[in-house]
Automatic annotation (TrEMBL):
<dbReference type="InterPro" id="IPR036388">
    <property type="entry name" value="WH-like_DNA-bd_sf"/>
</dbReference>
<keyword id="KW-0804">Transcription</keyword>
<dbReference type="GO" id="GO:0003700">
    <property type="term" value="F:DNA-binding transcription factor activity"/>
</dbReference>
<feature type="domain" description="HTH gntR-type">
    <location>
        <begin position="13"/>
        <end position="79"/>
    </location>
</feature>
<dbReference type="GO" id="GO:0045892">
    <property type="term" value="P:negative regulation of DNA-templated transcription"/>
</dbReference>
<keyword id="KW-0805">Transcription regulation</keyword>
<dbReference type="InterPro" id="IPR011663">
    <property type="entry name" value="UTRA"/>
</dbReference>
<keyword id="KW-0238">DNA-binding</keyword>
<protein>
    <submittedName>
        <fullName>GntR family transcriptional regulator</fullName>
    </submittedName>
</protein>
<dbReference type="InterPro" id="IPR028978">
    <property type="entry name" value="Chorismate_lyase_/UTRA_dom_sf"/>
</dbReference>
<dbReference type="Pfam" id="PF00392">
    <property type="entry name" value="GntR"/>
</dbReference>
<dbReference type="GO" id="GO:0003677">
    <property type="term" value="F:DNA binding"/>
</dbReference>
<dbReference type="InterPro" id="IPR050679">
    <property type="entry name" value="Bact_HTH_transcr_reg"/>
</dbReference>
<dbReference type="Pfam" id="PF07702">
    <property type="entry name" value="UTRA"/>
</dbReference>
<dbReference type="InterPro" id="IPR000524">
    <property type="entry name" value="Tscrpt_reg_HTH_GntR"/>
</dbReference>
<dbReference type="InterPro" id="IPR036390">
    <property type="entry name" value="WH_DNA-bd_sf"/>
</dbReference>
Amino acid sequence: MGDHDPVSDLQDGSKYARISAALRVQVEELTPGQALPSERELAQEWGVARMTIRRALAELVNAGLVRTVHGSGSVRAPEPVSLRIQLGSFAAALRAHHLDPQTTILQVSAEVEPPPAVRDFLGSEHGVICVRRLRHANGTPLALECTWLRADLLTIDEARQLTGSLYDHLAREGRQPDAGEESVRADLPDADEAQALQVPPSRPVFRLTRRARLAAQPVEYAEAVLPADRCELWFPLTP
C-alpha cells in the first residue's frame, strides 16, 4: 500500500473516524471467534495504509471487541462468561456455559514463608502448599489463579496433578470448604499477568480474593485475576 501515507491518513481525522467506525460495525457483525480479514485486505478495501488499520484494530483490542490469536490474526472476541461467585468448581461453572475448561499448572511449591495475609488466615502449624494455575475456556485465558492450602489437606504430588477441579478433588477427600467469603476489586494487570492472560496492560481486570473454611477451620486462601471484558460476575443476594 505504498500509495497511501499513514501519517496523512491519521491526520485526516474525519477519514480515520469513518474507517474506525466502519471497522467496529464489521467486527460486531461477526460471530465470536470468527476471523477478521487481514490488515492487508482491510487496507486495500478502504484504500489506506496498513498502519492506519493497525491503529484502528488496536482500539478494538483495547475495547475488548477483538483478540489477536497467534497464527490466526485478529478475531471477534467471545462474549463475556457469566460467573456466579460461589464456593464450587470453576471448571463446572464453565461447563454449565457449554465451555471446555482447561488448566495449565504454572507452579507448585511448599511455602515456608507465605504472604502475610495467607499466613494470618491459614496459620503456619500445618505448612502451606501454593498452586499457581492458568484457567482457560475454549482455549481463551480466563483466570490466573494462585491458591494456598494447608499442607495436611493437599500434598505436592497431588497438587501437581490438579489439571482438573481442585474442589472436586477436595470433595472426594471429604475436605471441600463449606463456608467462606470472597472480595472483588478492579485493577490493572501487571506485566506478567497481562502476558499470561493475553491482554494489554491497559485492560482492566477483576481481582478476587477468597477465604474458605471447612467446619469453621481455615482451608483455602486464593487470589484470582480475570480480564474484566471476558467475565461478568454475579452474586446471589439473600435478605
